[in-house]
Amino acid sequence: MSEVEELVLLATAMSSDDAYGFNVKKSIQEESSRSLSLATVHAALYRLEKKGYLRSRLGGATNERGGRRKRLYTITSSGLQALRARLAGRTRMWGVVQRMYPVGGPA
Amino acid sequence: MYRRIPQIAFNLLHWFADSEWIEEIEGDLEEQYAAHRDRWGERLARLFIWKDTLLFLRPYLRRRNHQKERVYGPIMFKHYLKSASRSLSKGKLYSVLNIAGLTIGITCFILIGRYIQYELSYDHFFENADRIHRLAQQQPGNSFLGSDYAAITPAPLARTISDEYPEVLSSTTVDDATDLLVAGDRTFLEVGLSADNSFLDVFSYPIQEGNPNTMLAEPRSIVLTAPLAVKLFPNMDPMGMTVHLQSDDDYTVTGIIDEPPPQSHLQFSYITSIISSEDYRESLDNWDSSSWWTYFVLSDGHAGSSFQAKMPALLDKYRPPLEDVESDMRQRLIVQRLVDIHLYSNFNFEISANGDIKYIYLFGGIGIIILLLACINYTNLAVARSVRRSREVGLRKVVGARRTQVITQFMTESFLFAAISIALSVVFVSALLPVFGVFVERDLSVNSADVLSLGLPLLAVLILVGVIGGGYPSLFVSKLKPAQMLKGSTNVLFSRGRGRRTLVIGQIAVSIVLVVGSLVIFRQLRYVQNAETGFDREHIVTVRMQDQELRLSPRIIQDELLKHPNIIRATSLSSLPTNISSRTSTRGKDLSGASKSIRIYQASVGYDYFDVFDMSIVMGSKFTRAMRADTASAVILNEAAMSALGWDSIENKYVTRYRNPDLPVVGVVKNFNQHSLHREIEPLMLVLSEAYTRTVSVKITSRNIPDTIAYIEDVFSRFSPYPFQYEFLDDAYDRLYKNEIKLGQSVLYFTLLALFIAALGLFGLAAYSAEQRVKEIGIRKAVGASVSSVVLLLSRELGRIIVVAFIVSAPVAYILASRWLDDFAYRIEIGPGTFIVTLAAIVTVAWLSVSYQAIRAARANPVDALKHE
What is the tens place of the pLDDT at every residue in B584-605? Predict the structure, then answer.
């Protein structure tokens, strides 16, 4: 799982009831101030679905989209598991770093 | 307002991505666009959305169905073939019309293609064909028969370029010759060449016997082509044998070479060593007289054009121009590629009559147009017929056929039609090729090796016809929505008939141009044939005197000829009045000593010249027996010469040529066309001098012509060993217009074919349109329409089409025909009559092809049409 995929997967899991291309892109931009192109997000979603981390269905046409339906993604259990494993590793590493440089200590 | 996203961007996406993805991506892009617009404004948003769209062009979005189609491919193809052959046998009339039209078109195309291929192949057979060149020249101002270009050059030129320029690998001087070859008791009149010893270095004719390095080195050497060697010396070894040339001397055979192939501008059956010619030996240092052809080979990497640039310096060195000659009036040497000579060179004094690239373009154009007409027919009929098949297509679509599959199906069908037509065409072509070959005077027969090389062009024709013919109908039909088609709302199809109508208009427009073209050509030819040229062309027989002794005393044979009661008059002459090709400078003088020099055509004639050709003398008298004829003694000028010299009487007038004695002007002949009607009448002088005459012309009566000819032959064979050849003056006259007559015939044939194809197409269209409107007609009749009003209704559309086609094509036809006529100094004018006749012909053909269907539809019982409703 690449870093972009990880971000996309996180963002999808975050807004579980309305996760689709443009929305995912928007929340990544808001939360991490990383600007990904729609196409990049779309490709990542496609790859994640192929890996079995996401599930999708078509639905929710709105006026802003010119009446076109969205592809709505929800995270699968294996997606959650992969995310957990990934973040667990990071959190452990971050714990070590935090202990070496406590807040207010020498930096 | 949403839809401000550039539509092209979406189109790109549609084309690129599988439809599965389109909706969600477009939606996202739409939202993205709105977000961009709120932040950056309309213009930048448009720009950004382009970037966002382009980034989507990633492989995973490509269509996914390739694999599926590959699996079903062969099965579907079999199915397409099957449904194609079904529809072929279902609509018999339609199939026959289609195949007939296509077959005619393809047959024409192949025949013309073969002719063009033949013409383009001239002189390519030499190993180094692309490096062989010829030198020709232009002498500005020294115009002869309307052109100042000449293919002949001075004798020392070949040797000089070899000496001066290292890139000239070899060069040769060539002269032509026709002679009676005698070996023992065998005699043959043969066309040959005379050439120097480098000839076989330049031209790589395969040598059967003899040493190529010395064959033509010695005087009195002759090289024979293999067929002539067999004719002259059957069952003997010809090498070292003696051949007697009737007008020359005994020659020794020093070599045997292959016969030149027919696709060569150099045609000969023997070559003599040019060093045998006294004329040549004396001219070896003479740069002022041109009568030889100069061929040479350039080494690799040297282009003829850059060699051409060196020629002015060469001329300056060997033939410096007179001080006062303007630079653009100086003699120029012109380098020609050997392979271009046949089609591009039409200078004076060519070694043989060449082809003309104009005709290649013309025939090529006609071939393509006829093929296109046939394709248009196919297209039109197929579209019209698709009305009937709309249900079939609709059903196919409903059960899941993709658009590409419908297109493939219709293309398969058109390829099937094309393939059948090509197969039929090949049969026709093989039958017609010999006939067509006679017509274009070329041996177009194909040997087994060429048959393979024809396969590829045929494949090209198949693809061309298949795609052009099938493309439009398949795109058209496949586009329609299944619901419309199944509902049977066929008027949807017909309201979109504009494309088809345009095609029909194009077809008729082309036919109109062709009809006008043939009419104009034929009217001009009739004008030419009936033209008053100023001399009598009927019942005049001309025989060449090839025997030298005969030429010295032409009176003897004339007296002998006149003993026959049906031979009324006889004269000898240097060239026929139909084409006087000798030109010179002459100076006119009167007693006061005033003089003026003009360029003038000339012919040497005997006493009774004016009586034989029945020319009228407008001033002075004819030649009389009191004047001497064994040497030039008197002249008669034509009116054009009189006005060129500024004379209005012949009293005390003399003309002189170079250093010859003054000749008294004894009369003025009424202007006559001494060349073809392409050219104006120019100054001419007829000199009484039998010594230079080459032919004998006799006026005969119309009684028992074969007997008279036999008598003439008998007399000649007593005086000359040469085979007897004669020609009627009207044939000689027609020969001047040989190209035009050929052109007229071919345009006529093509016109008939084009009309026939157009008629086939109209017939088919009428059939479908009548069928289409069967209910409408039924209702009209039921409420009281008469048969004639219904026929009128059905023909009205056609009338409109013809009018539009006529408006479009008449100016084009007028311009083309005028340009062709501009070649003639004496020509007809294209009046409205031509166009009226054309229109009448087109309307007749169109009406004949449509009327049967229209009348049948109009006369049908309306009950039949309406009872199913």
Answer: 888 888 877 778 888 899 999 9
Tell which phi-psi region holds residue B374, choosing left (phi > 0), alpha (psi between -120 and 50) or beta. alpha
Angle, CA of B844, B847 and B850, to the nearest 5° = 150
Q: How far apart are CA B677 and CA B674, in angstroms?
A: 9
What is the bridge-based pairing of β-strands B221-225 and B250-257? parallel
Residues of chain A with Cβ-Cβ distance to B56 below 8 Å are 38-39, 42
Q: Give the CA diameter of chain A.
A: 57
Integer distance in angstroms from the first to the last C-alpha of chain B? 49
**φ/ψ (deg, to 5) at B51:** -60, -45
Which segments of B299-435 are extended strands (E)?
Answer: 332-337
- Residue B431, Cβ neighbours under 10 Å: how many? 11
Tokens 């961007």 map to which residue?
Answer: B9
Query: What pLDDT does residue B271 have?
Result: 94
A71 in contact with B, Cβ within 8 Å: yes
Question: What contacts 24+ positions apart, CB below 8 Å, involve A57-61?
Answer: A58/B23, A58/B24, A60/A18, A60/A20, A61/B27
Specify the DSSP element, H or E, that contains B476: helix B448-479
CA–CA gap between residue B5 and residue B755 (Å, rounded): 52
Q: How many helices (H) and strands (E) would you count in chain B?
A: 29, 23
Buried b / exposed e along A43-74 (16+ C-beta atoms within 10 A): bbbbbbbeeebbebeeeeeeeebbebbbbbbe
**What letter represents residue A20's amino acid?**
Y
Residue owning tokens 């899991």: A13
DSSP string computed for B792-804: HHHHHHHHHHHHH
Mean pLDDT by 10 residues, chain B (869 residues): 66 81 85 87 86 85 59 72 82 84 90 89 90 91 79 91 92 91 89 92 92 90 93 90 88 93 92 91 87 92 88 86 70 90 88 84 89 84 74 80 82 88 90 88 75 75 83 78 65 54 86 92 92 90 85 86 92 90 84 83 91 92 86 90 90 83 90 90 91 89 91 90 88 88 88 88 78 80 84 82 92 93 91 92 87 81 72
Task: Mark yes or no for CB contact B25/A21 under 8 Å.
Answer: yes
Q: Search chain A and give the residue with CA nearest B23.
A: A68
**Which letter, b or e, does each residue of B555-578 get, where b requires 16 or more Cβ atoms within 10 Å of its Cβ?**
eebbebbeebebbebbbbbbbbbb
3-state secondary structure of B747: helix
DSSP string computed for B99-150: HHHHHHHHHHHHHHHHHHHHHHTTTTTSTTGGGEEEEEEE-TT--BTTB-EE
This prediction has a pTM of: 0.73
Distance CA B239, CA B353 (A): 32
CA-nearest residue to B59 within chain A is: A43
How distant, in Å, are the alpha carbons of B106, B114, B264, B446, B738 from that of B118? 18, 6, 11, 10, 20
Q: Identify the bridge partners of residue B377 per DSSP, sorted by sequence position.
A: none
What is the CA angle B856-B861-B864, rounded to 5?
110
Distance (Å) from the C-alpha of residue A15 to the closest C-alpha of chain B? 17
B32: closest chain A residue by CA = A22
| SS3 state of residue A68 | coil
B763 beta partners: none
Which amino acid is present at B482?
A: P
